[in-house]
Specification:
The complex is a heterodimer of chains A (about 110) and B (about 110).
Chain A: E1 3-7, E2 10-13, E3 19-26, E4 33-38, E5 44-52, E6 55-58, E7 64-70, E8 73-78, E9 87-94, E10 100-102, E11 106-110
Parallel strand pairs in A: 2-11
Antiparallel strand pairs in A: 1-3, 3-8, 4-5, 4-9, 5-6, 7-8, 9-10, 9-11
Chain B: E1 4-6, E2 9-13, E3 18-24, E4 31-37, E5 43-50, E6 55-58, E7 61-66, E8 71-76, E9 85-92, E10 100-101, E11 105-110
Chain lengths: ~110, ~110
């Protein structure tokens, strides 16, 4: 069966520091992968999605970037965090009926 | 772009039925989905319905789809305190495009 992992689970970082969040999927090949941000327990904001290795589509211009170095690995990065980057970051992969299956999320607090 | 709308809050008494409503604009939607998010967790896929169906029932959950009016609803029978969560409606129009999510309905169950 397929599983999706995200780490770290929580992160507290100072403004201006770099960021690297990792997402890995097991039990499926060449999945579509997605990064979302959720602020204050409300709606989801799609940040990036990837249909294959090295292929990244950016939905929102900002100081974040994404990379897909391996088939089942999706990384979200920033060179310098802003206060507004705080939030709950969710990774997801796409199933056969176009549904998305979500990871447990990473809670990021920028101080 | 396509849009999905939901009411933000719903409060029900334990044991009553809950009905969460959603409207969408994409007339070419193929699948529609309901997700549940508990505090601090990722989104959990509850159920989905294919666009050529009117109704789908799964234990306490009933999904109704009115394709003409582009209206989707989720009925939870015998609502329990464990059903308290945020419920997201989402739609897909196939291909590689990501799902379009509503902003979520916060369901509060009063004992």
């Amino acid at each position: 069966s397929q599983t999706i992992h995200q780490w770290p689970a929580t992160l507290v970082q100072p403004v201006g520091s770099p960021l690297s969040l990792e997402c890995t999927v097991e039990g499926t090949s060449n999945p579509n992968l997605y990064w979302y941000r959720q602020a204050a327990g409300r709606g989801l904001q799609l940040l990036f999605y990837s249909v294959g290795i090295g292929q990244i589509s950016s939905e929102v211009p900002q100081n974040l970037s994404a990379s897909r170095p391996q088939d089942r690995q999706f990384i979200l990065s920033s060179k310098k965090l802003l206060l507004s980057d705080s939030g709950f970051y969710l990774c997801a992969w796409r199933g056969l009926r176009n549904e998305q299956f979500f990871g447990p999320g990473t809670r990021l607090t920028v101080l | 772009g396509e849009d999905v709308e939901q009411s933000l809050f719903l409060s029900v008494r334990e044991g009553d039925s809950s009905v969460i409503n959603c409207t969408y604009t994409d007339s070419s939607s193929t699948y529609l989905y309901w997700y549940k998010q508990e505090p601090g967790a990722g989104l959990q896929l509850l159920t989905y319905i294919f666009s050529n169906m009117d109704m789908k029932q799964d234990q306490r959950l009933t999904v109704l789809l009115n394709k003409k009016d582009k209206h989707l609803s989720l009925r939870i029978a015998d609502t329990q305190t464990g059903d308290s969560a945020i419920y997201f409606c989402a739609e897909s129009n196939s291909g590689n495009t990501p799902l379009v999510f509503g902003k979520g309905t916060r369901l509060s169950v009063i004992a």
